[in-house]
Amino acid sequence: MKNFEFRNPTKIIFGKGTEKEVGKECARYAKKVLLHYGAGSVIRSGLLDKVKKSLEEAQVEYVELGGVKPNPRISLVREAIELCKKEEVGFILAVGGGSVIDSAKAAAMGIKYDGDVWDLYAKKAEPVGAVGVGVVLTIPAAGSESSNSSVLSNEEEGLKRSCDSDDIYPKFSILNPEITYTMPRYQIACGCVDIMAHIMERYFTQTPNNGVSDRMAEALLKNMIHFAPKALAEPENYDYRAEIMWNGTLAHNNLINCGRQADWASHPIEHELSAEYDMAHGGGLAIIYPAFMKYVYRQRLPQFIRFATEVWGVEYDRDDAEATAYEGIVRLEAFFRSLGLPTRLEDAGIEADDAKLHFLAKRCDRNELGKVGHFVELETEDVEAIYHLAKKEG
């Protein structure tokens, strides 16, 4: 187990009707806020009106900026920054899922940064603070409601990149599972895969001797395997939606990251797909994660055997350890398909030739060592091979 420091300052307000408390919470931080949201569902469901009413009752002024899209765009973030400066906004309230929250976090940093906020995502500069961010969560998925990370797309450059800063932990996050009832089934399914991917990015590690985090990760994965199908089958079952919503927060609040080096290979590999084809992040992960596993499992066989036996209940085959490990990957892929998600590029309608896959692999974001990931450090040709595995059966 590695040395670590753990801090998560986000106040979680969980349960039925908790969105009514948003005005009181915002009033702790500012007299005027930016109300940031997407489109459609928050308006149709009446949630936005409830949030506005709560702000008005708490005597918190607000200005609005909607229109956040999946894979949030730098162009709207720049607009948000200018609006906040013009209106002297001191706090940003994100009403939505991961895309809205990440957009709000980017704007919060951009207000404090004397330059173009994309510099922070392109690793040309470090964040220098942020105004406060609050959240009313509408979909369990990204875990951004209690994380110190944000992912942003630059539509002009065709890039999707992340930025981490402790300044962008939300001050509070309101999680009411009832709010998720009206979300489309496909979005919830994508969210479930995103949650599982966040756990697996931390579970697969070269760091030995961390049984606490190993077992927490396994428990969270098994909980998703049990409740995700139920939550999709009965969209207005509060208990099922509560399970996956809280699971999503725990998957990405860095608790299971303590004392270990996380991988973070599959996320940047998928980011290239969603940046290029504007697909749902969870749908891309359903394609990439099994392909990644098939490419690396022989190099880290003991961990994949444990994943198969402890998470999926695969019986260990003493005569063929590799078959045991591979069966865990097969079951993961089948589970993603059972949720109605693509597990091949062609399933998602993506026709990418060899030149395109090489381009995406070469463009893929690197870590501080110039590699993709830490569990198995991948070069461009490795990433390209993973894209090819994602393209075909086998």
Automatic annotation (TrEMBL):
> Which CDD domains does the record associate with it?
BDH
Asked if the record carries the keyword Plastid, the reply is no
Taking every annotated instance into account, which residue ranges of this chain make up the domain Alcohol dehydrogenase iron-type/glycerol dehydrogenase GldA?
Answer: 9-177
- Which keywords does UniProt give here? Oxidoreductase
Q: Which Gene3D superfamilies match?
A: 3.40.50.1970, Dehydroquinate synthase-like - alpha domain
Q: Which domain of life is it from?
A: Bacteria
Q: Which InterPro entries match?
A: ADH_Fe/GldA (IPR001670), ADH_Fe_C (IPR056798), ADH_Fe_CS (IPR018211), BDH-like (IPR044731)
Tell me if Nucleus is a UniProt keyword of this record.
no
Q: Where is the Fe-containing alcohol dehydrogenase-like C-terminal domain?
A: 189-388
The family database entries (SUPFAM superfamilies) matched by this protein are listed as: Dehydroquinate synthase-like
Coiled-coil intervals in this record?
A: none
Single GO MF annotation:
methylglyoxal reductase (NADPH) (acetol producing) activity
Q: Which GO terms describe its cellular component?
A: cytosol
* PANTHER family linked to this entry: ALCOHOL DEHYDROGENASE YQHD
Official protein name in the record: Uncharacterized protein
Origin organism lineage: Bacteria, Bacillati, Bacillota, Clostridia, Lachnospirales
